[in-house]
Write a structure and sequence with these properties.
- By secondary structure, this protein is of the alpha+beta class.
- The chain contains four helices and seven strands.
- Strands 1, 2, 3, 4, 5, 6 and 7 form a seven-stranded mixed β-sheet that branches.
- The mean pLDDT is 94.
Length: 132
């Protein structure tokens, strides 16, 4: 793995370890770290609640990036609370894809030493069929 991927993986692992906040809410079942095209790192944790309106770690990291005025992800990795790398869910893939046309080239680590472009995870994406 390149130094960037090691840094992202280590950052995500620092945040892992599920915590029960209340009988309704658990956090940190997954943690994500992303690197922007400007070279900045943002991270986030999952929020799992009883009414299924939680937030995945990827979208939490993305919202932090957006809050800080950046819009372009270069790389992203997500880990479960045991450090195992997992692939983003469909909602997170869709969120990333809607960031702009560049997003098809976002690099996503989907398993140990296995990296795919977001376009490989969202083939035949509906948004490519819409004229602006």
């Amino acid at each position: 793995m390149s130094k960037e991927w090691v840094l992202l993986y280590e950052e995500a692992c620092k945040l892992q370890g599920e915590v029960k906040i209340s009988k309704f809410l658990k956090i940190k079942g997954a943690a994500s770290a992303l690197l922007t095209s400007k070279g900045n790192l943002y991270s986030g944790v999952s929020l799992a609640n009883s009414c299924a309106t939680g937030m995945c770690a990827e979208r939490n990291a993305i919202s932090t990036m957006l809050t800080n005025g950046e819009t372009e992800i270069a790389k992203i990795v997500t880990v479960k609370d045991n450090g195992k790398i997992i692939s983003p869910c469909g909602v997170c893939r869709e969120c990333m894809r809607q960031l702009g046309n560049y997003s098809k080239d976002i690099e996503v680590m989907v398993a140990d030493n296995k990296i795919k472009r977001l376009s490989e995870l969202t083939s035949d994406w509906w948004g490519d069929q819409i004229d602006e």
